[in-house]
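ESCALATION

Customer reports they have been waiting on this structure for their group meeting. Please prioritize. Original submission:
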Amino acid sequence: MKTIFKFIIGQILSVKAKQYLRKYRTQVIGITGSIGKTSTKEAIYQILKKHFNIYSSKKSFNTNLGLSLAVLQEEESGFSSFKAWFSILNRVLFSKKTIYQKMVLEMGADHRGDIKKLVKIAKPKIGVITNIAPVHLNEGQFSDINDIAREKENLVKRLPRDGIAVLNYDDPLIRQMNTYAQKITFGVESPAMVRAHGVRMTSKNIKFTVTYKNESEEFVIPVLGRFQVYVFLPAIAVALVMGMKLKECVDVLSKFSLPAGRMNPIHGINKSMIIDGSYNASPVTMKKALELFDELNADRKIAALGTMNELGEISKEAHIELGKDAAKISDLLIAVGPEAVTIKQGALDANMSEDKIFTFLDSEEAGYFLKDQLKSKDLILVKGSQNHVRMERFVKVIMMNPNDAPELLCRQGEVWEKI
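Update from on-call: job pushed to the front of the queue and completed.
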């Protein structure tokens, strides 16, 4: 019954979303990629909103249902609540929507054909592809990373001839993608058109210089991790092709903050510090997070790592590798979720002492275990996938001010509490 109901809701919402975009001739900037869609979307929105009447959902709405909700300016899904969905339908059908000149929208893909469906709802004029990584590899999803790339390519293959494809030049699978639209490339390797060089990190920010044509500017952005440059380069590229100057991008991004759960620093109890990467995880993002963790200084480093979901046949190998990588950096390892024992095995293989490794199925239980052991100047890296892991619950237990959770953590609110 619920499946049929949601299908009907989805059909109604997609029709209304198409009608909205067609009626107001709203230009769509579509973003896809395996990693960083929400952060890139937010960076594009923050840069462009100074000059354009633009909308971007605060949520990571990137499925058929979610994309329609984003276009229709709904900020919450109805999840499994009939009452909530009827409230949404009432607003969609009878409430007047704000007219926006442009919308920046995420487009996700868990299966073949997903991007094709999404571009039918909201056909972009500008398409951004951030990267390709091994995710969604469970049975019935993608067969391999090349299969993922072919699906993501559908975003730029369906751009109009006067559209613009913003592509990561440093990703070989993206570099060879085909499109009828104009291409603008970004990366840290020459000859990317929008190129970052001199990328460096401090304990408070990343710094890099961007060159475009004959213009160069230095950026100082208050986020952690050299890898975040791939969040900002496509945003800068979009701004440039829309007529903005590099200097304007510098000014906006100097005050930028990442969405919740994307490697944000949060004060922990007993004067500890948390690096909160609890929103999601994949082998690539885990590796980047551990590289960042290795660069930061602390009296004691504690890695709290959750299972990485939807890895299919590579899952065991990926979790063994994760355990090995964590063991080289961490003084203490807390593994959470269905693959916790596999992470532990990897750490043991890397000669980490067994009395420094702890496994849990429940993230909240793991948080309470660590809570009483935290000391001043401890640094805790927290990262894991969503379903069956939910490492934001771990963070909430050990953060200094749990009352700040609604503002600082991902997946908060009454609905998420029940999931």
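Sent to customer with the following note: The mean pLDDT is 95.
Escalation resolved.
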